[in-house]
């Protein structure tokens, strides 16, 4: 029995200089439902929620909350109206305690003073509702991202929210944490709250939502019940074009006697990874599968010298190399796209040109500079090759969309023409079209003889692209399977149960 | 698994480590002083109280500075504003024959006004705090020199009375209260310092305004997304710091009974040093008034030790303070990394 | 594509533009008050050129030299508070080597106790090492630059005082006098040294990829490291350069007064240098830097002082005027104001196109 609409948006239009970010979009949210908002990057999801919580002003259209028109001027006003938002990056204060993060700005007062015992008592109560039995007086930074995320939700819930907006809350959570979040979401839904949920993970949408609304290029594609639309149709509607590109990808062809390009023997960093061995042939793509924290990233970081391997040996192209810093790895012709694009990849305030030339330049050393013309030529070449959407190479890299930033980082490493390319979650948080293109580029590089290590949380893309798949569990390699013959079920079983 | 709060977890809460470190190191140095110069009277109440008397003006200013630092800002103007306050009082009473209260009122308007203005420029014009308050410092210093380039003595009954007012510390002996020997007393400056510490601690721990200060220092963007009044809080913090600078200036004027355009040069750094060795992080978000109190004591015990030694150049004090800073920065560094690591669990 | 049209909006957005405009305005006012402001005369007896402009450049030498290093530090996202103290240290060491015999012979003469090369080299090496110490705390200790350099700022002057037993030495050694008071090609020596330093730093940063590495580390140290830049070495080098340049400035300063003054040498130099960099358009948060802008910034600061002298105002009060003018420049450069002007320029430009 569907509840009544608590939020109705009609004909919402928002214009930014030069673009219509939203064009006459209708949206409604019912009491007691989880409503997923879907679309590629730039489709207008964030703009729509920022319109609801008052960060962006709409140019036309109406927003009705419980039948009354509202015009929130900022997150603060939206909150008093009962609309709470949990943003993608946890927007809390790491130095304050968990309890205080929930109540700061509206602390209960007693005789003109903040009533700390009340705050801590109520915070404990709230957190235990989410099955988190923690010391709420410890600073937030003491706890994992999942707990921080829950704290943000607890804050949002405690303001008597009618509407809760969750913008990509799951992108940094592991599977158990996601399940915990989902149970909280269901609990809130059953108490009558309307939840708007944004995620890039299609499986999660099917696992938790009741309805979904799809946006494309600022237009509404449609609103559907969850059982109305299959995954394939959903993706087609989001992308708006044939998904043949994705499904026609051909994995690299590696002759069995291809030379070994990278060999790691019993490497360990002394704390997180103990003993890891690996071989990678020329032109081969090896996928790393496993849960978050299973040791995939740690292994990659060690191979690249981002963390130092305290024991074990690494050979590149048959030669033993000593890799203590990323600089050494680059000299050995390795390349590494890190997991956290914003923190470790893109250099936002510098131009695309400078971002692309960086790895080449650092390999040459600063005493052998490239001229500006050489840099521009290099950048222009890769902008064209990778289809980076920008007017010219002098635009700041930080101003690009996520997918284009990822292409810039890829270009940085392609320009360095590495023998071994390590990609840690290169497709996370970018839209499906760009994802397909990055997968295509990856396979093209394999075709040119580059050996690739590909880390991803999405099993289907690993299976689609990999020649071999290394499965990691509890910070160790538990199995290696053939990419062409294994299925998702096989891998999931190994991840869940250990060695095959 | 129960992981609730107990008395033990409350005390061992990692956020207090820096305060414990400050208190601990102060006690160690104080004890060392007692061991070396106990025979010269280092351990007497008088020496201890003198630490307060000689540094009260730094302490008063450090109260405001601690708040500014917790927001993640900095205020370089405090020394100059305090100096200008002294000049207001000296020039006003001695040359213009105004009542000291008039001068103090004018200084309050000047100090708080300048603080609010700087806060406004920092927040709304988005100019770095370092640059804004540096300009404020130049301005205050310059105005000071415009008023007078000579040191002016202060002679006014009210000032004399206030400066001379003291409470002798007593003890109960032989059935009556007698002054302790050697004579030790607390004056107006010391009381003002302690009162400001208590007010500061109350604001920081017990008011929403105070908690907003911490939130802003933790993550300003988050604070504004949480709906906290970021702009207003920041402007008011700089205003409050202006108030503290003026009070520090008054206290300094009472201490030296004169006004001079070059007094308290570099005072801002002494004050910042007090706060930092008191456990306040210059990156913002962390700091306690009790830490600042001991930071002031810790910083003032060093010159006291050098005086007791008698042979050392006073410059060794600067070097010792520098080494102390180094020590504290290393401890802070260690604490930050070790609590950061827990995050992974 | 409109091609390379004269980009007014972009120019209005640039902080350097505002710095140049400010400097031009101040000079213009000086000229209006004193028509002979721009005149430069040749004095055959000393073989030097004289004039207000020469004087401004000459007197700004120390700050300009230090702020070359400071620009790089700020581009890394830091600040170096210790430069003023290092100026005092350099002076103290130089005078110590010149007048090791100060207890025996109290009157200064035209001689040096230790070889001149030591008088020059030891202060520079010590300052470079102190810079290296700052860099070490920042790069290896992961300490915020402002705190790391606070240490030497607090105890640097103490070191300088203890080196000279808290006394002020004077010297009459003429080769030492040349550094601060001599001339070359009719110009005061400090100007020549400044030009050499500015050109050297500019060549070093812009003719190699070092400048780009500094900017990259300043914006995102972690990403820079993973791109193969040895971020730690870059930081060490930048702080060492800044220390070395402070040493050079210290030698110039003490040569001007032929003495060491551990209390006042380099006092507030860190503030002036940071100000010069920021007025010159380099963002305190790090990233892109402009050496030319910094030179303009340093000249602005000195021009203001000269300007105030012309009004016949006492030396100590120049600070107030300095503050007022700097406040105007900073407000004009602030983000909201620049955006406002850029928007207006863009609107006008749009109408014309």
3D architecture notes:
The complex is a heterotrimer of chains A (500), B (345) and C (353). Chain A has 500 residues and is α/β, with parallel strands linked by helices. Chain A has helices at 45-52, 75-81, 98-103, 116-129, 145-158, 175-190, 202-208, 231-239, 244-247, 296-304, 326-331, 341-345, 352-364, 372-386, 402-415, 432-447, 459-465, 488-497; strands at 5-16, 19-30, 33-38, 60-65, 68-69, 83-86, 109-110, 113-114, 163-167, 194-198, 211-216, 219-225, 260-268, 276-281, 285-289, 311-316, 319-321, 334-337, 420-424, 451-455, 468-473, 476-482. Chain A has 18 helices and 22 strands. In chain A, the strands form five sheets. In chain A, strands 6-9-10-3-11-12 form a six-stranded mixed β-sheet, with helices on both faces. In chain A, β4 (60-65) and β5 form a beta hairpin. Chain B is built from 14 helices and six strands. Chain B has a two-stranded antiparallel sheet with strand order 1-6. In chain B, a hairpin with a 2-residue loop joins β3 and β4 (176-179). The model of chain B is unreliable at 340-345 (pLDDT under 50). Chain C is mainly α and 353 residues long. Chain C has one domain (49-312). Chain C is 68% helix and 3% strand. The longest helix of chain C has 27 residues, at 231-257. Chain C starts with 7 loop residues before the first helix and ends with a helix. Classes of the chains: A alpha/beta (500), B mainly alpha (345), C mainly alpha (353). Chains B and C meet through α6, α12 and α14 of B and α7, α13, α15 and α16 of C.
List the helices and strands and how they pair.
The complex is a heterotrimer of chains A (500), B (345) and C (353).
Chain A: E1 5-16, E2 19-30, E3 33-38, H1 45-52, E4 60-65, E5 68-69, H2 75-81, E6 83-86, H3 98-103, E7 109-110, E8 113-114, H4 116-129, H5 145-158, E9 163-167, H6 175-190, E10 194-198, H7 202-208, E11 211-216, E12 219-225, H8 231-239, H9 244-247, E13 260-268, E14 276-281, E15 285-289, H10 296-304, E16 311-316, E17 319-321, H11 326-331, E18 334-337, H12 341-345, H13 352-364, H14 372-386, H15 402-415, E19 420-424, H16 432-447, E20 451-455, H17 459-465, E21 468-473, E22 476-482, H18 488-497
Chain B: H1 7-11, H2 17-37, H3 45-70, H4 78-95, H5 100-124, H6 129-147, E1 152-153, H7 157-164, E2 166-168, E3 170-173, E4 176-179, E5 185-187, H8 188-206, H9 208-218, H10 220-225, H11 230-256, E6 258-259, H12 267-277, H13 289-309, H14 315-342
Helix pairs in contact in B: 2-13, 2-14, 3-8, 3-9, 3-11, 3-12, 3-13, 4-5, 4-6, 4-11, 5-6, 5-11, 8-9, 8-11, 8-13, 9-11, 12-13, 13-14
Chain C: H1 8-13, H2 15-33, E1 40-43, E2 48-51, H3 52-59, H4 61-75, H5 83-98, H6 116-139, H7 145-163, H8 174-181, E3 183-184, E4 187-188, H9 189-206, H10 210-219, H11 221-226, H12 231-257, H13 269-279, H14 291-310, H15 318-333, H16 335-352
Antiparallel strand pairs in C: 1-2, 3-4
Helix pairs in contact in C: 2-14, 3-14, 4-9, 4-12, 4-13, 4-14, 5-6, 5-7, 5-12, 6-7, 6-12, 8-12, 10-12, 13-14, 14-15
């Amino acid at each position: 029995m569907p509840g009544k609409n608590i939020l109705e948006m009609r004909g919402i239009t928002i214009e930014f200089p030069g673009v219509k970010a939203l064009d006459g979009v209708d949206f409604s949210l019912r009491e007691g439902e989880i409503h997923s908002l879907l679309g590629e990057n730039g489709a207008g999801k964030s703009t729509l929620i920022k319109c609801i919580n008052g960060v962006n002003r709409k140019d036309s259209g109406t927003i009705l909350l419980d039948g009354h028109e509202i015009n929130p001027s900022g997150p603060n006003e939206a909150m008093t109206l009962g609309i709470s938002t949990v943003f993608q990056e946890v927007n809390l204060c790491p130095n304050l305690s968990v309890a205080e993060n929930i109540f700061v700005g509206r602390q209960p007062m007693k005789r003109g003073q903040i009533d700390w015992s009340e705050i801590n008592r109520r915070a404990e109560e709230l957190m235990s509702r989410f099955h988190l039995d923690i010391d709420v007086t410890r600073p937030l930074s003491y706890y994992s991202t999942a707990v921080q995320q829950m704290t943000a939700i607890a804050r949002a819930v405690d303001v008597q929210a009618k509407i809760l907006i969750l913008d990509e809350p799951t992108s940094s959570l592991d599977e158990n944490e996601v399940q915990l979040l989902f149970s909280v979401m269901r609990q809130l839904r059953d108490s009558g709250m309307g939840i708007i949920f944004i995620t890039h993970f299609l499986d999660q949408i099917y696992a938790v939502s009741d309805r979904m609304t799809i946006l494309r290029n600022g237009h509404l594609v449609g609103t559907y019940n969850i059982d109305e639309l299959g995954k394939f149709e959903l993706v087609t509607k989001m992308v708006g074009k044939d998904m043949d590109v994705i499904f026609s990808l051909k994995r690299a062809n590696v002759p069995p006697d291809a030379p070994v390009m990278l060999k790691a023997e019993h490497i360990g960093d002394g704390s997180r990874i103990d003993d890891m061995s690996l071989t990678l042939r020329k032109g081969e793509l090896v996928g790393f599968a496993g849960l978050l924290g299973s040791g995939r990233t740690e292994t990659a970081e060690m191979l690249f010298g981002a963390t130092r391997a305290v024991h074990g040996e690494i050979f590149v192209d048959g030669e033993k190399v000593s890799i203590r810093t990323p600089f050494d790895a680059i000299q050995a012709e390795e390349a590494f796209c890190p997991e956290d694009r914003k923190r470790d990849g893109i250099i936002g305030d510098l131009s695309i040109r400078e971002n692309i030339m960086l790895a080449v330049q650092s390999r040459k050393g600063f005493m052998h500079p490239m001229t500006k013309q050489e840099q521009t030529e290099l950048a222009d070449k890769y902008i064209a090759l990778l289809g980076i959407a920008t007017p010219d190479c002098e635009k700041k890299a930080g101003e690009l969309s996520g997918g284009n930033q990822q292409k810039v980082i890829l270009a940085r490493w392609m320009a360095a023409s590495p023998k071994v390319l390590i990609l840690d979650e290169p497709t996370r948080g970018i839209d499906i079209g760009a994802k397909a293109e990055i997968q295509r580029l990856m396979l093209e590089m394999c075709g040119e003889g580059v050996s690739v290590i590909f880390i991803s949380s999405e099993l289907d893309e690993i299976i689609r692209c990999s020649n071999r798949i290394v499965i990691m569990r509890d910070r160790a390699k538990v199995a290696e399977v053939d990419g062409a013959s294994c299925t998702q079920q096989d891998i999931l079983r190994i991840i869940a149960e250990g060695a095959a | 698994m129960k992981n609730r709060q107990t008395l033990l977890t409350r005390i061992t809460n990692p956020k207090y480590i820096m305060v414990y470190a400050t208190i601990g190191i102060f006690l160690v140095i104080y004890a060392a002083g007692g061991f070396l110069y106990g025979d010269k009277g280092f351990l007497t109440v008088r020496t201890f109280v003198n630490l307060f008397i000689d540094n009260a003006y730094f302490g008063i200013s450090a109260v405001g500075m601690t708040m500014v630092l917790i927001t993640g800002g900095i205020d370089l103007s405090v020394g100059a504003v305090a100096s200008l306050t002294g000049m207001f009082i000296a020039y006003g009473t001695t040359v213009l024959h105004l009542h000291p209260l008039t001068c103090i009122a004018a200084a309050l308007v000047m100090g708080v006004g300048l603080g609010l203005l700087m806060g406004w420029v920092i927040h709304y014009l988005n100019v770095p705090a370092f640059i804004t308050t540096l300009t404020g410092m130049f301005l205050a210093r310059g105005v000071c020199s415009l008023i007078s380039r000579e040191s002016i003595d202060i002679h006014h009954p009210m000032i004399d009375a206030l400066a001379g007012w003291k409470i002798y510390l007593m003890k109960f002996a032989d059935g009556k209260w007698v002054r302790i020997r050697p004579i030790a007393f607390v004056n107006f400056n010391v009381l003002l310092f302690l009162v400001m510490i208590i007010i500061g601690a109350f604001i920081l721990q017990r008011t929403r305004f105070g908690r907003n200060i911490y939130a802003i220092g933790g993550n300003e963007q988050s604070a504004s997304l949480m709906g906290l009044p970021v702009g207003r809080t920041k402007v008011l913090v700089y205003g409050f710091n202006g108030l503290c600078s003026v009070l520090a200036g008054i206290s300094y004027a009472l201490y030296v009974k004169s006004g001079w355009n070059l007094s308290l040069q570099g005072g801002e750094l002494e004050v910042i040093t007090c706060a930092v060795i008191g456990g306040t992080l210059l990156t913002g978000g962390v700091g306690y008034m009790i830490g600042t109190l001991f930071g002031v004591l810790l910083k003032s015990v060093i010159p006291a030790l050098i005086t007791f030694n008698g042979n050392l150049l006073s410059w060794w004090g600067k070097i010792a303070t520098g080494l102390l800073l180094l020590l504290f920065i290393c401890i802070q560094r260690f604490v930050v990394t070790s609590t950061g690591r827990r995050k992974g669990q | 594509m409109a091609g390379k049209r004269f980009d007014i909006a972009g120019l209005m957005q640039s902080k350097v533009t505002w710095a140049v405009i400010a400097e031009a305005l101040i000079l213009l006012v000086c000229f209006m008050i004193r028509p002979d402001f721009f005149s430069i005369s040749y004095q055959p007896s000393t073989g030097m050129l004289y004039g207000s402009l020469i004087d401004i450049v000459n007197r700004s030498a120390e700050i300009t030299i230090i702020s070359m290093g400071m620009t790089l530090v700020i581009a890394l996202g830091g600040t170096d508070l210790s430069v003023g103290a290092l100026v005092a240290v350099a002076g103290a060491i130089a005078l110590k080597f010149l007048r090791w015999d100060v207890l025996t012979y109290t009157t200064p003469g035209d001689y040096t106790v230790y070889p001149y090369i030591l008088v020059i080299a030891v202060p520079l090496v010590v300052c470079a090492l102190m810079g290296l110490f700052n860099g070490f705390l920042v790069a290896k200790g992961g300490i915020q630059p402002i705190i790391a350099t606070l240490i030497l700022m607090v105890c640097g002057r103490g070191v300088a005082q203890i080196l000279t037993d808290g006394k002020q030495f004077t010297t009459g050694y003429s080769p030492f006098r040349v550094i601060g008071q001599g001339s070359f090609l009719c110009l005061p020596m400090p100007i020549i040294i400044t030009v050499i330093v500015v050109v050297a730093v500019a060549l070093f940063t812009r003719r190699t990829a070092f400048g780009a590495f500094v900017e990259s580390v300043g914006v995102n140290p972690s990403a820079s490291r993973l791109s193969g830049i040895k971020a730690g070495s870059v930081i060490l080098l930048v702080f060492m350069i800044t220390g070395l340049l402070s040493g050079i400035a210290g030698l110039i300063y003490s040569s001007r007064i032929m003495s060491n003054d551990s209390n006042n040498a380099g006092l507030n130099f860190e503030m002036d240098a940071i100000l010069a960099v920021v007025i010159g358009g380099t963002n305190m948060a790090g990233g892109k830097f402009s050496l030319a802008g910094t030179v303009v910034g340093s000249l602005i600061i000195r021009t203001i002082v000269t300007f105030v002298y012309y009004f016949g105002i006492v030396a100590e009060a120049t600070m107030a005027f300095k503050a007022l003018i700097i406040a105007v420049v900073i407000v004009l450069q602030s983000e909201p104001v620049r955006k406002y002007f850029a928007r207006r320029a863009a609107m006008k430009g749009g109408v014309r196109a």
